[in-house]
């Protein structure tokens, strides 16, 4: 019996692998993917306001304003093309209108994408938002209205839907 045990141990010893040189250094892959996109800073839901101000009911002035108030700041991955479109508003009849809060009187107004009021922002027209700093993008929205001089006193307003794509 001892002979068989000795033979089995000898066979096991012969079958055991011979130690090889082990690799003591190697490599492994490290990677990441940066997704293109934009962020609304602060997660605000109101992108600001267009406030024309207060005027006499007899005024016939052309009045202007730009997006202000708590205006939204966007941050985009450098190189991302950011676009916006603005709907016709709650008082749209083919033209954007401010409506008197206690009546049906309207004041037509037009939106622009530049301070010179030369680039009209049509209803639901998609426009590219230009920016120099991808960490501090402001929406370029300017407005102009022509007062008629025959408006009843009151508060006139509208609400616009802004859609951003990137």
- The residue fraction in helices comes out at under 10%
Q: From the 3D structure, determine the CATH topology.
A: Immunoglobulin-like
CATH superfamily: Fimbrial-type adhesion domain
DSSP strand count: 10
Domains, number? 1
Poorly predicted regions: none
Radius of gyration: 34 Å
Give the overall average pLDDT: 88
Q: Which architecture name does CATH use?
A: Sandwich
CATH class descriptor: Mainly Beta
**Major β-sheet strand ordering:** 2-8-6-5-9
| Ends distance | 82 Å
**What's the story with the biggest beta sheet?**
5 strands, antiparallel
The assigned structural class equals mainly beta
Strand content is 15-25%
Q: Secondary-structure element order, as H and E? A: HEEEEEEEEEE
* Separate helix tally: 1
Domain Spore coat protein U/FanG: 25-163
Protein name: Spore coat protein U domain-containing protein
Organism: Pseudomonas bharatica CSV86
Question: How does this model look, in words?
Answer:
There is one protein chain. The strands form three sheets. The chain has a five-stranded antiparallel sheet, with no helix packed on it. The chain has a three-stranded antiparallel sheet with strand order 7-4-10, with no helix packed on it. Helices cover 8% and strands 25% of the residues. It has one domain: Immunoglobulin-like (Sandwich). By secondary structure, it is mainly beta. 13% of the residues are buried.
